[in-house]
Amino acid sequence: MHSMPEVCTNRREAKRHQTALRLQQCALQLTLDKGFDGWTIDDLAVAAEVSRRTVFNYFDGKADVVLGPGIEVDPATVDAFVAGGPTGRLFDDLLVLAHEATRDRADEGLINSLRQAVVSDSRLLALVHERLETAADGFAECVRQREGDDFPPQRARLLLKLLLTFFDNALDRTAEDPGRTFTEHFDAAVADARTALA
């Protein structure tokens, strides 16, 4: 049974999540309609029916609201990975981290809108690349902690580039076949790679 403060906290968190999602959806639609430079934070506030201040309570600026929150993984999942789990097989365990990183971002409509916005604006593409590089560095550090300092950095980067390739391929598949979830497409990309390399 949940205590009253827990219930209130969960409701607040759910409302914050919904507001952030609505802001991102509106920002993506504005970007698709007018281009990234064709709208302002004031335009976004009007479209989302919130105040300008509310936008800045959630996001630092236009790029952040379009791209959404950064990649986050539950610390317990990271700890399990660093300790050698959950399967004991490095690449399979990296896949578990990848699933965790995309767990709350699997809204196909949002993914497709984000993909369209990013491929139409070189600055957004560069920002996505920067975010992915930061995430890759974090994943590489987790691999180093798990496997030890002697683990070749090139091998860690190769594993992470494979993950990024699976993400990219899953985005393409999601655009072509919106009837399946992003997670299903991601898993299909991994399965196809395993078959090809077997």
TrEMBL record:
| Keyword Transcription regulation among UniProt keywords | yes
List, alphabetically, the SUPFAM superfamilies matched: Homeodomain-like
Residues in the DNA-binding region are 40-59
Query: Is the Chaperone keyword given for this protein?
Result: no
Q: Which UniProt keywords apply?
A: DNA-binding, Transcription, Transcription regulation
Q: Which InterPro entries match?
A: DNA-bd_HTH_TetR-type_CS, Homeodomain-like_sf, HTH-type_TetR-like_transc_reg, HTH_TetR
- Which Pfam family, any one of them, does this sequence belong to? TetR_N
Record-given protein name: TetR/AcrR family transcriptional regulator
Can you name the source organism?
Answer: Nocardioides ginsengisoli
Provide the taxonomic classification: Bacteria, Bacillati, Actinomycetota, Actinomycetes, Propionibacteriales
